[in-house]
Amino acid sequence: MKNLILTTYHLVAIIILLLAVFPVCSQEVNTSEKPKIALVLSGGGAKGLAHIGVLKVLEEAGIRPDIITGTSMGSIVGSLYAVGYTSDELAQINENANWDLLLTDKERLRNVAMDEKQETEKYLFEIPIKEKRVNLPAGLINGQHLEAYFSELFWPLTSHEDFNQLPIPFHCMSVDMISGKTVEHSSGDLVRAIRSSMSIPTVFSPVRMDSMLLVDGGVARNFPVQEAINMGADIIIGVYVGFQNDVTAEDMTSITDILQRSIALGGILDAKEQFSKCEVLIIPDLHDYSAADFSKGLEIEQAGEDAAREKFNDLKVLAQKHNRSFEPVTKIRQPDKIKLSSIEIEGLQYLNKNFVLSKSGLEGGDSVSYKDIDEAVEFMYGTRHFAKLTYSLKKDEAPNSYILKFSIKETPRAMLKLAPRYNNDLGVGITTNFTLRNMIAPATRMLISFDIAENPGMEIKLNRFVGKKQRLSDYFFISSYSFKLPFYDGGKRSGNYKRDYFGGGYGLEYLFGLNHQLGGNAFYKYNRLTPRADLQSIFPEADFDYLKSHDWGYQLYYKINTTDDLYFPKKGIKLDIGFQHIFSANSDLNLNTTEPRDYLIGEVNDAYATLTIDHNWYKTFARKLTYNFEVGAGFSSEDAGANGIYMLGGSQFDPNKLQSIDLTGFNYAELYTYNYALAKSSLSWEIASGLYITTKVNVAATADSYEDLFDHLTTQPFGNHIWGYSCGLKYDSLLGPVQLLISGNNQDNESRFHLSVGYPF
After folding, report:
1. What is the pLDDT of residue 532?
2. Catalytic positions (predicted)?
3. Residues facing residue 678 across a β-bridge
4. pLDDT for res 12
5. Contact between residue 755 and residue 424 where contact means Cβ atoms under 8 Å apart
6. Neighbour tally for 66: CB within 10 Å
7. Cis bond leading into 224, ω under 30°?
8. Distance of CA 723 to CAs 74, 146, 365, 712, Å?
9. Going by DSSP bridges, is the β-strand pair 202-204/139-141 parallel, antiparallel, or unpaired?
10. Side-chain half-sphere exposure of 669, counting CA atoms within 13 A
């Protein structure tokens, strides 16, 4: 009995001890589970760059978030941090990103196919036509370069099944314009998710995803605190850089202010409700900055850092309270090359899959790097068959194997393009263009351009792309011009010829990459030269009714253009070589006298040839000073007649029509010659964004025959040449290139004034 009592006593004691110990152990287990800290980043356009400065301070305080949610710019910064970019790496991105390019759809000229270069920077307005109606775009910017940049930063992690499996779980917000509901992105295409989250209505085109049409999450949920809580967050650190609620009527002074606030009003009111859920709320002072101030990114980043430092003690206490110390996440390993198991294309309407694949140069089974895919996308986009072209990668079953998916938006089949201009040599004009793609037949492009001007013109060209890689095209062309050719005496305009031109033909062109082109065509051209009465009254040699000619021939040409801009190049080279042979020249001179005019028509019906060469080299020093060196020459065979004449003079942006050659110091077409050689040297200093001070000096030698020209250059290399010089301003304006120059030469010491505004025809 005694033993039983003793045993019972021991059992009770053990139970009591266990009951006493168990709660303690249980409590220790619970408290060892650290509460989850979420970082919530709002949208705000360029002001969202302040998030980078905040991240620097969080790292110093010892806090690495367990969860990140973001909207718009907050989704960009947040997603990059979530996949493993450090705050220092994000700061480098902010410093080095070319925001001027990223926030446009403008093609980089060196990435545009040669047959499209002249059309890329030529029009002030480009309006799609759909179903015989003008169709305005859904947004000003498609985001081509921005998404390509994101794809580079996230390579090859463009698609992920679950954003919660990222090194730091991440969600972002957008709004479906169809249903009006907010959309929380937690899986799928990461690049497309953040692109949706930042699609500011009317600024960026919406993103189609399944049946949804997605725009910026800032419209309704600019500060996704509740989403972070739903992901399991216990503590919220919020950074808000969006519109403030404390605005007055004086702050709403422009249509832009009204439009921006109207779009974001729902998100502003919602954000105010979310503020109270934050344990630490950081609101940088960004009143001096706008959502478009990407050029002030470093200042905005510093403002974010300053605001976070004001909360540094709170952040430090939070880290110490929960036993936190900063440990950078391990960035997802990015292979140099991946294998493409297959290629898919989404968005085809009128183009076929083979056409797109031929332009890409990629095939299933290829082993590719990011650069390979990026170059393929740039080449395809440079053909201008695509208004937008992006890609995503999805892991396949095989190791390091991915499915490449191109998402394309075809360029509208019909576009109306307009460009007004003024030139004090050529007068006022409006270029009107219709561009038709894949309408006449698949893989075709037709350009129909009219110059409604004092000197009218018309050009039509139809290209048809053939071959496996679509680098070869055949084309038909027609062109017509009617304009006044000035006649000068001692630098003063004395009278005018009227020149009427019509030509057409058929040719072939071949593209070597994007920047080299070889071509040739067979043509017919008609010219009629008529002196005006004011010229005939002054110069008896102009006393004829008309000179007309019917020429049949062919031409060959080779072109290189690696420059970065059509009108304000800063680097690259240009080379143009053109040869034409007229094998049938039928001229007719109607005289008012019996005196012959052989200097105008040569030997009637004689064949002749011309050769023209022009080479430009551009180099920029110290980022702002651009040097240009140019050499050129033109040669006409004997008996070329009036159609073999080169017209020298002027400072046109695009002068090379009908053998018109730019020569500063002289008026447009002031000098006439059969043969010439020239060299030019110019400096342009960019004193403000798009504004240049420019100076140019050129020297030329001319002769009636190329033998005389060679003799002159070899026997008198520093002899009595024609010198011209100019200085002035150039401006890359919204209306197109603007040029204001004062020039002169060593022939008459008269000053010339030149003003042009807008894109040339």
Report:
1. 66
2. 72 (nucleophile), 216 (proton acceptor)
3. 632, 700
4. 40
5. yes
6. 20
7. no
8. 58, 47, 60, 15
9. parallel
10. 22
**Token duo for residue 291:** 């959502």
Backbone angles phi, psi at 318, to 5 degrees: -60, -45
Strand residues in 255-300 grouped as ranges (E): 280-282
Cβ neighbours of 221 (radius 10 Å): 27
What is the per-residue burial (b if ≥16 Cβ within 10 Å, else e) of 245-278?
Answer: eeeeeeeeeeeeeeebeebbebbbebbeebeebb
511, containing H or E segment: strand 492-512
Report whether 499 contacts 527 (CB < 8 A).
Answer: yes
In sequence order, what are the residues at sequence separation of 6 or more whose Cβ sits closer than 8 angstroms to the Cβ of residue 657? Answer: 481
**Three-state SS at 443:** coil
CB neighbourhood size of 593 (10 A): 9
| CA atoms lying within 13 Å on the CB side of residue 692 | 28
Q: With b meaning 16 or more CB within 10 Å and e meaning fewer, what string describes 334-344? A: eeeebbbbebe
592 three-class SS: coil
Q: Are the CB atoms for 453 and 426 separated by under 8 Å?
A: yes
CA 58 to chain centre: 36
Q: What is the length of the chain?
A: 761
Q: What CA–CA distance (Å, rounded) separates 227 from 182? A: 11
Question: Could you write out the DSSP letters of every residue in 618-668?
Answer: EEEETTTEEEEEEEEEEEE-TT--GGG-EEE-B--SS--SSSEE-BTTS-T
Query: Is 0.85 surpassed by the pTM of this model?
Result: no
Angle of helix 50-61 relative to helix 312-321, nearest 10 degrees?
A: 40
For residue 277, give both structure tokens.
């859920």
Q: What local confidence, expressed as pLDDT, does residue 242 receive?
A: 86
d(CA 202, CA 215): 9
Which of 313, 286, 318, 290 shows the shortest CA–CA distance to 302?
Answer: 286
Residue 337: C-alpha distances to residues 149, 344, 373 (Å): 18, 19, 11
Instruction: Please tell me the predicted confidence (pLDDT) of residue 541.
Output: 55
> Position of tokens 């859920």?
277
88: part of which helix (H) or strand (E)?
helix 87-96
Give me the average pLDDT of each 10-residue run along the chain (761 residues). Answer: 42 37 34 80 93 95 94 94 93 91 84 87 88 74 87 75 90 93 91 90 86 88 94 94 72 69 74 90 90 91 95 91 82 81 90 85 87 89 88 83 89 93 90 92 91 93 85 94 81 80 96 92 92 54 70 96 93 96 78 50 68 96 93 89 85 70 90 93 94 96 88 76 95 94 90 93 84
pLDDT at 76: 95
The set of catalytic residues is 72, 216
Structure tokens at 140: 């000003």
Please, are residues 77 and 93 in contact by the beta-carbon 8 Å criterion?
A: no
Distance of alpha carbon 450 from alpha carbon 479, whole angstroms? 10
Asked if residues 52 and 76 have their Cβ atoms less than 8 Å apart, the reply is no
| Dist CA 195 CA 205 (whole Å) | 10
Place of tokens 């503590």: 235
**In the block, residue with structure tokens 């002054």:** 538
